[in-house]
């Protein structure tokens, strides 16, 4: 199957070309015809599969052949980072079709709020919003969603985890009943089924490799004691030829400590966590994207927020609190069917939690021996250990500026 099978407008095909998308991914091949056919859809697909373009392309196609006066599509996303990332894909894909969009999320100063409000009052074609901020705009009475024809819930499971259920229902009560609704979720727990039953009409269903990391990722695990982790990480970074590395830690204190330690070791790294201002986050991400910064260390806030091509290595400095977070973290490498490596450090306390991950993905992740100079790591015996600590699932919210149409960046899938 190729993109020309979908009879997209030439402007949209041009957008695809400029993004460097040559061939539809599996989710795109399955979802695009259904969405073009005006079906409601419930899709189980994780990040890295090309899910965003799978709903954006047909929605953009429908919008590009309709009048342009009102907001026609509303996309709800759990975090500012995901909203921005979706907005960037809209900018790229819709550049030649001249479709407008804005990412709307919390924080920032009054000017940002005003810019978002004005864009929505002017009838920006597509609004990509986090639920909380959108509710604030709706409450101000300034914006109307009465012409929205397409509603997308992206990472619906994450939105429910973050407590947005009531907000979502409230937002939907402002939308026309006649609309097309598309729900994307990495997992399908019962609460997602309940939400789907409430808001979708006779939906089609697609399941893309449920809870499976992308096939191009080489997963590896080291059994380590805590006091071996730093030496191990610096030996991996110094010996491997990795250009772009993400290191995940479950707590921001660990992120900060590890960043300080690695910098002392002469490794060029930056920390990324919820204490950073939006501008600081963007500076770090920009440096990483431009390859002037090879290593970012972050909490799970980072795993949902980063969309960078060619990440070659993801290291889990500790085992993520939720097995699904493992999929999200390692999904940052091997984007859209390229290849990458994901290494997880498992100490004695995290062994049981790690066993949950192997249960979820349904196979054993290859164990790698520690370098000889580090000595022996702990034996693997998950049955007697308890998971430790809890994750960082907070949604940071600072500021963002009104969308500006740049020429799309070339996306170079390997
Ligand atoms: P997503 O799963 O939507 O987060 O997309 C994962 C990454 O794949 C993003 O960087 C997209 O730009 C990229 N992508 C999406 N569709 C394609 C495609 N058909 N070919 C190549 N890259 C793609």
Briefly, what is this?
The protein has helices at 10-19, 26-36, 51-64, 80-93, 110-121, 131-139, 156-161, 165-172, 190-199, 226-239, 252-264, 278-289, 300-305, 323-330, 351-361, and strands at 41-44, 73-76, 101-104, 126-129, 150-153, 180-185, 204-207, 217-223, 245-248, 269-272, 295-298, 313-316, 340-346. The protein is α/β, with parallel strands linked by helices.
Can you list the strand order of the major beta sheet?
A: 3-4-2-5-6-1-7
Global shape: globular
Sheet with the most strands, sense and barrel status: 7 strands, parallel
How many helices does DSSP assign? 15
CATH topology of the largest domain: Rossmann fold
Described by its quaternary structure, the protein is single chain
Question: What descriptors fit this protein?
Answer:
414 residues, alpha/beta, Rossmann fold, six-stranded parallel sheet, 38% helix, binds adenosine monophosphate
Characterise the protein shown here:
Helix 3 (51-64) packs across helix 4. The strands form two sheets. A seven-stranded parallel sheet has the order 3-4-2-5-6-1-7, with helices on both faces. It has a six-stranded parallel sheet with strand order 8-13-12-9-11-10, sandwiched between helices. It has helices at residues 10-19, 26-36, 51-64, 80-93, 110-121, 131-139, 156-161, 165-172, 190-199, 226-239, 252-264, 278-289, 300-305, 323-330, 351-361, and strands spanning 41-44, 73-76, 101-104, 126-129, 150-153, 180-185, 204-207, 217-223, 245-248, 269-272, 295-298, 313-316, 340-346. The protein has 15 helices and 13 strands. Helix 5 (110-121) links the parallel strand 3 and strand 4. 38% of the residues lie in helices and 14% in strands. The structure holds adenosine monophosphate (AMP). Adenosine monophosphate binds at residues 21, 23-25, 28, 47-53, 307, 335-336, 411, 413. The site of adenosine monophosphate has 17 residues, from helix 3.
